Structures are given as C-alpha cells and as structure tokens.
Amino acid sequence: MPIVRVEMWPGRTHAQKQELARVITEAVVNIAQTTPEATIVVFQDVAKESWAQGGVLASDASK
C-alpha cells in the first residue's frame, strides 16, 4: 500500500487538492503497479512559521 505525503504551505483549495490527489494516485498506480484503492495520499499544510529554507523561516523570507 503506497502512502504519498504532500507537505505544502496552506492556501490550496479543495479543488486543487482533489486534482493533486487524482494525478498523484494515477502516477503511483501506473509506475508502482498498484491499485487506486491501495494508494493513499496525505496532505499536510505546514505554516510558513514552521518551514525554513537556507536557514531562513519562510515567514521571514518576504520581509
């Protein structure tokens, strides 16, 4: 049972997550030779205050 975790900043719409889930599932089914029912996609919104890149919090990067 493949589990795909997608972490991203908040702000994606329900429709965007639906489309992401659909295309991710389709890719996993085709490449990993599994079924849609066995494929799990987990979305986790991560606040910019909890995300750093290059040693700088994303919440501080635009300041």
What report would you give on this structure?
It is elongated and about 45 Å long. The chain starts with a strand and ends with a helix. A hairpin with a 2-residue loop joins strand 3 (52-53) and strand 4. The protein has helices at residues 14-32, 58-61, and strands spanning 3-8, 40-45, 52-53, 56-57. By secondary structure, it is of the alpha+beta class.
Q: What strand order characterises the main sheet?
A: 1-2
Query: What coarse outline follows from CA principal-axis ratios?
Result: elongated
Q: What structural class should be given to the helix and strand makeup? A: alpha+beta
Rg from alpha-carbon coordinates: 15 Å
- Unreliable stretches: none
Distance between the first and last residues' Cα? 42 Å
The whole-number mean of residue pLDDT values reads 96
Percent helix among the residues? 25-40%
In terms of DSSP E residues, the strand content is 25-35%
Q: For the report, how would you describe the main beta sheet?
A: 2 strands, parallel
> Secondary-structure element order, as H and E?
EHEEEH
Summed up, the helix count is 2
Give the beta-strand count: 4
